[in-house]
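Narrative progress, year one. The postdoctoral researcher (J.K.) led the effort to move from monomer predictions toward full complexes, under supervision of the PI. The following entry was the first complex the group processed end to end, covering 817 residues in total.
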Amino acid sequence: MGRLFAVEIVYRGIFQKTLAKNISRAIVLAAHEEGKPGISFGRYGDSPERNGIPAKSFAIVATDDQTLEEGMAKYEPKEVDITIVVDDTLFKGVESWAWYGLQPINRLLKPGGTLIVTSREEPETLIGMSHRKEVPYQLAIVKAIPSFSGLWVYKDDHTDVRILGAIPKVLPELFSLESVQKVILADTKNSLKATSAARSHERTTTVTVRPGQGNPEEPFRFEFPKWHEMREGITIPSIPAGHAMRDPQNQQSGGYQPARNPTFKKYTTRTMRPVVNFDTCIKCTLCWLQCPDSCFDVTPEGLYDANMEACCGCGVCEAVCPVKDCVTMVNEVAFQDNASQWEMWRKDKAVYQGWLKGKIESRPERSHGFRYRGQYQEQVAEMAELGVEGSSKKAKEEPARVTRGA
Amino acid sequence: MAVTTVPTVESSKGTEKTALITGSEAIAVACKLADVDVITAYPIRPYDTVMQYVAKLVADGEMDCEYIVAEGEHSQFEIVKHASAVGARVFCGSSGVGWMYAMEALTVTPALRIPMVAMVGNRALDDPGAFGVEHNDALAVRDLGWQLVWVDNAQEALDTALIAYRVAEDRRIFLPCAISCDGAFLTHSQALVKIPSQENVNAFLPRYDRGDLLLHPDNPISVAPQANEDWVMEIRRQNYAAMERSAGVIREAYADFERIFDRSYGNPFFEEYQTEDADVVLLGMGTVSIPIKVAIRQMRKEGKKVGLIRMRWFRPFAAEELTKSLSRFAAVGVIDRDYSFGSPYMSGVLATEVRSALYASPGKKPPVLDFIAGLGGREVRVPDVQKMTEAVYQAAEGKPQPLTQWIGLRE
């Protein structure tokens, strides 16, 4: 038997579906340049047509056809040589739309395998976000704003070719830089993209993530029931009614916290989270009313606390809030846990205001698509510049954090 | 009770009365006796005769039910599916391409464990547009979890409809049941039928209790969520288990039926006619039994020991009992009022199933010939049956015969 290579690309539904497919296809085509057969596919059980839902594409390559069949005989690879993560917030773990629980981003990586991620964060931040693993692995960061686009449009910002250029650096046996450049040129007729791939190849370095480094949280998981344990008639029990909330400061009871699905939490869909200024909230109910995920808990005093175990980060609350700067969406990488903002505010309002100000003022750039007219075009140019030149003017001015008006 | 919907010769025999009614009316009377809650209708011949009789029963104040005329068969079956989910006893039906138009609803009904009882007035599938009987309509759902039963007279239609509710609504089963009635021969011809008393029907048929699957605010559940490959096999296995239990529940129901109504059908799964000493046997479903029985009596006068097996229940298929019975004969001739183009040996559905059952059976495996006959409602005549029997005898003597023959064809 020859050698089997497996690469997974973890991406966000709709926003990065085309990006993931482009990377996956190019991997197979580049390996094919060197005579290796391969296949490229999206995980069929995923829901890549839903906004932000974590999903996967796979590229399986082998040194010969029979070895490739060993890989094809599995529904999806059980371990991979490379995990490509095209959005750094996925480092907190992924929950696809089934009963899978929370899967660490590094779960499928072989010992010594490499996580390649597009991010503007430092390695320490990213390692802190991902779950601990018992074996060491490598981390390679392609400096970029996570590339988000839509179902019908593709943000052609060189993210794909920069990742493709990084691959032969960390796994030269899969394909060479020359092979992937050939594929890029044939596919795009754009020599700048081949240059981007080469620059990325030059710049890619890895850091070793040691066992025990990372988030110590035990990811939530579930056992599948046996057929005779399941309810008949394709029926499932509904989510029960909710209950009152308790104020941890004065033990006052009131408000309403809806009960939620314990087996499908969905919050890894989130790339941004709302932070709420409870001191300016006018209790108008609009965020609570409009939230498509019923994520707002009603506090005893009638405020609305976005529950981070339920929030998908859509940003509707920010859009409908009539009070200036009362609800602000902030990049998910700025947070370490899902703790209640309201409880923090109840504990010490001054401390909370300081925390809130810090989160809003230094928030890392993040958006679904674009947040103002022309942003998209700016980002494409900026990222292409970063890819080809190795740096962009903006990146020099503001190396990691960019503040933009909402 | 009075069946005032039709001019009948009524005579009272104990608590039972006798009425002159069609097979379709017999089904309508069963709906009344079963106190069905929701009925949906959409006209297509020959099924529409049932909806006409039910409509009259409702209009005359003899029957109390929601009677909904849908805008097509798909909605017709969807409406009763939902009504059944909230605890209503339901009835529905169609024929030919109408049944096929409802196909999506027909597939989800057993999957959701909906104990719908439906009547299929068997009709040839279009094209050509034809009213006459073929069994391909009902047989199209044979793999999906529908219990399928064929009857050959109006009395049996009425009785089987009551039994169908009893079996379908049994919590161990909760699978739909379709009663096939041959278009014209059964749906449109009147016969004397004993109408059971309401008291006896009440004793036989308990109320429909949806139990833990009831869609109701007091039992909050979601029905039919999307599921991926991690769930589908377990869901299918549950329906497999339900269908596996069906035969036992059918036996119980027939035993209770005999006890309460003092009318016996013997083996629930198939009727045997003059098989005790038979050399060869013919096997069919539905009203084709009548010319076969006439032909058998004639042939027996000529010394030919021929018998008939008339299949009632096609799903569940009583493979063990049937093959045990068939092992007694030198050869079997199956009469298929259906077709299955491109099937093994180009045979009809019934013959293919019978051969499949025999292959894994422990006993003797007689040769099985198939006769495609009576399609589109064409008459199966006594000489046709004699011709088939001749071929079966040839096969019994080891003389090679075509495995599939068309009978009654202009050629």
